[in-house]
Design a protein that fits this description.
This protein has about 250 residues and is an all-alpha fold. It is about 60% helix and about 0% strand.
Length: about 250
């Protein structure tokens, strides 16, 4: 597993602002090319780090790994349905593969508990988005990938965690990931619950629209669910290829 130093998650906003504000004057074409090349190199490095974390998640917890694979596929399809480019959707899928990275730092006694979590255990579990974001920031991963990891448990009505963002304050990438994540969680068997049918999960998403989820994204997801008979992915285990290029081809 890659080990990177933790940094305060408040730095995320500074990283995000620095990325968005990076501009080169029109008269300095050479500098613009340098900035573009730097961005491409940083994205390549970020993808390499993320794929290494995907491998570590697979080795640590195969159930979380398989869940993340399905969530990545749902998120990618949903992003494309919403008009995202292939590259943007692919990058969101990569972020989805590590959205539960923080859970690898939580004890198995909590992760695999078959009974209701205690209040203290629930608070511990709710730290996983923050833990995952800190790990990624500490590894200098591009902010695009950090946002959905940090905010995918925020709620449309402001009652989510870890920061209580409301409505469109929540990044769109995180709102897409939230719907994909919950659908797969509902339709998967867990130590504490049985899997729901596709129809039952569909009703849960409808009930959560405007409370937990962005209603527009729920409508788009249900459109995909209703349009494509085989949209729901099977619960199966699949190996991750060993080479970096093979990993990227298999995942996307």
């Amino acid at each position: 597993m890659i080990v990177c130093a933790y940094v305060n998650v408040r730095m995320f906003s500074l990283i995000q602002k620095d990325t968005k504000d990076t501009q080169v004057p029109e008269s300095k074409g050479g500098e613009r090319e340098v900035v573009a090349a730097t961005h491409i190199n940083r994205e390549r490095e970020s993808r390499g780090v993320l794929l290494s974390f995907v491998k570590s998640i697979q080795e640590r917890d195969i159930v979380t790994y398989e869940h993340s694979r399905r969530v990545a596929t749902y998120a990618q399809r949903l992003a494309r349905c919403l008009g995202w480019s292939r590259r943007e959707a692919r990058n969101l899928a990569l972020a989805a593969l590590v959205h539960d990275l923080g859970k690898t730092w939580i004890a198995n006694t909590i992760l695999n508990k078959s009974d209701v979590l205690s209040e203290e255990e629930r608070r511990t579990m709710e730290k996983h988005p923050l833990i995952g974001a800190r790990i990624l920031i500490g590894c200098d991963v591009d902010s695009f990938y950090v946002e959905p990891v940090l905010y995918h448990h925020e709620a449309w009505d402001g009652h989510g965690y870890p920061t209580g963002l409301h409505g469109e304050e929540i990044p769109l990438s995180a709102r897409i990931l939230a719907v994909a994540d919950v659908f797969d969680a509902l339709t998967s068997q867990r130590p504490y619950k049985a899997a729901l049918t596709q129809e039952a999960a569909r009703e849960r998403l409808l009930l959560g629209a405007a409370a937990s989820f962005d209603p527009m994204i729920v409508r788009a997801f249900l459109h995909l669910l209703d349009t494509y008979p085989n949209f729901m992915l099977p619960q199966r285990l699949c190996a991750l290829p060993t080479s970096s290029n093979a990993q990227q081809n298999a995942l996307f």
